[in-house]
Design goal:
The chain is mainly beta. It contains 5 helices and 25 strands. The strands form 7 sheets. It has a 5-stranded antiparallel β-sheet with strand order 15-16-17-18-19, with no helix packed on it. Strands 1-25-24-23 form a 4-stranded antiparallel β-sheet. The longest helix is centred in the N-terminal third of the chain and has 16 residues. The protein is globular.
Length: about 400
């Protein structure tokens, strides 16, 4: 129970109660509108139970291991999803292996399916799932072309929204992270810009890509903020969360940031507003809403869902536990204050030197009090030849895994 709730329980009668009511009224008046609306239902959320989602795990294994095609998805990370108006689900991935999967056994005699070490690796991909939950096809990859030499695009959160405010025509907006090749410690690229791509419906053709916020002018690359790791719609607004790359600079945790955009305007840079720590501003100088750089904060990618009046953020834990443990924070508004971290859980991992990362919620597949969460798995030494060899030798190491969570109200 939060400290302020305990204090209210301990409040006495008479003058003390009157003062408490007056203070509560003043605080309520000062809260943003969406926080006031959720006041009756907002409160602590914790994970009470979780279990592996066998159906989804099995389906991605079936599709990834299917040897009949040489140009489809066999593994990837950066897992995001969005439900399309016709009931299909579009899955988006960052670095992706194409090609064929063989075996088992593999050349080392192990009982794992394997891919050729020369299998194509592209920077992004998209896979379409049918209404019935069967993965059916990989769109031509990469779906989003490189913006320039030594740069690439990673897709993150996606939303279906009106082509323009009030329009009956819908499109898919996909947020993109642009990164640029860099020297160590930027082995995953230097943060460069946030972009938004528009996909037509129902054929999922890329119509155009718009730059939203460039970060080249921020001299410290670890302080550059890319938006889109997750997005939540609340009323007439889409709240888009982002983070910095503090962990690349050997700080224990990154910080979280938030922007907001009116529905139907994700592709319009002038419509974006950024929380600067005290107010929404059109200037692209966001202030962190979560993270002290030490014991609290987020991983390089995290996810946020809205459970009634409460925002719940899932991330890998700070420090060394961040290799195995998912933890969460909660707030009554996207700008915070955020409370936590709450009790974490450690999802199952395959044997070997592997790590979990990028927990992502999938509301399109959730419901009935259950929340579907994915996490990516990779070999720990992601820079060495051994990592590439292990990902080829055992294809299951570089695929998302899924768990189903249940949350309780504190």
């Amino acid at each position: 129970m939060p400290d302020d709730a305990r204090a209210r329980r301990q409040a006495g009668t008479g003058l003390g109660l009157v003062l408490a009511l007056v203070c509560a009224a003043l605080l309520l008046t000062a809260l943003p509108h969406h926080e006031r609306e959720g006041g009756g239902t907002c409160g602590e959320r914790t994970v009470t139970s979780w279990t592996g989602d066998t159906a989804l795990n099995t389906e991605f294994t079936r599709y990834g291991d299917d040897p009949t095609r040489t140009d489809d998805w066999t593994g990837g990370d950066g897992t995001h999803s969005v439900r399309l108006p016709d009931g299909r689900v579009l899955w988006l991935f960052s670095d992706t292996y194409l090609g064929q999967v063989h075996g088992p056994p593999n050349p080392a005699g192990e009982s794992y399916a394997w891919r050729d070490p020369s299998a194509p690796l592209v920077r992004n991909s998209a896979v379409v799932m049918s209404r019935s939950g069967r993965l059916e096809s990989t769109l031509p990859a990469p779906l989003f072309p490189d913006p320039a030499p030594n740069q690439w695009r990673w897709p993150v959160a996606a939303r279906v929204e009106p082509r323009s405010p009030g329009s009956s025509e819908q499109v898919v907006r996909v947020l993109l992270w642009t990164r640029t090749t860099g020297a160590y410690p930027w082995i995953y690229g230097v943060p460069t810009a946030t972009e938004v791509a528009t996909l037509s419906l129902p054929d999922l053709r890329v119509e155009g890509i718009v730059r939203i916020l460039g970060q080249e002018q921020v001299p410290d690359a670890s302080r550059r903020v890319l938006f889109g790791t997750t997005a939540v719609t609340d009323g007439d607004w889409t709240y888009v969360f982002g983070g910095d790359d503090a962990q690349a600079a050997s700080r224990p945790a990154s910080q979280a940031y938030v922007a907001r955009v009116p529905l139907g305007r994700l592709d319009r840079p002038s419509a974006w507003e950024y929380w600067d720590g005290s107010a929404w501003t059109a200037r692209g100088t966001p202030g962190a809403v979560l993270g002290d750089g030490r014991g609290t904060g987020v991983g390089s990618a995290f996810t946020v869902v809205r459970d009634s009046g409460t925002y719940v953020l899932f991330t890998m834990a700070a420090g060394t536990r961040g290799l195995t443990t998912v933890t969460s924070y909660w707030a009554c508004a996207p700008t915070g204050p955020w409370h936590g971290p709450t009790r974490g859980f450690s999802p199952p991992l395959p044997q070997g030197q592997v790590a979990a990362y990028n927990p992502q919620a999938h509301p399109a597949l959730s419901g009935g009090g259950r929340l579907v969460l994915s996490y990516d798995v990779n070999w720990l030494d992601a820079t060495g030849v051994s990592a590439q060899a292990n990902l080829s030798r055992n294809v299951s190491l570089y695929r998302p895994r899924f768990v189903t969570l249940r949350l309780s109200r504190g």
